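Standup notes
- DV: blocked on the single-chain target, sequence here:
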Amino acid sequence: MTKRVFVTRRLPEPGFRQLLDAGIEVVVNDEDRPVTKDELLAGVSGADGVIAMLTDRTEKLISLCWLGTFSLSSSLMKLG
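- DV (later): unblocked, structure below
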């Protein structure tokens, strides 16, 4: 089964390519601004994970975790 990840903002090409090469379906917010609550809820609906930028307000993501929508983890990804 294909994994699906919602990305709150555009990733550098190497990071985006790594996800695609791993067979992950990537849904990206193409706007260069933080996602709204409604956009976040729509983006994570049916997603297996989310990649958020450090500049995003994380309380929205933490609220989703608290509600049991999905788990949130953080790790560093080599982008090049």
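- Follow-up: Residues 4-66 form one domain.
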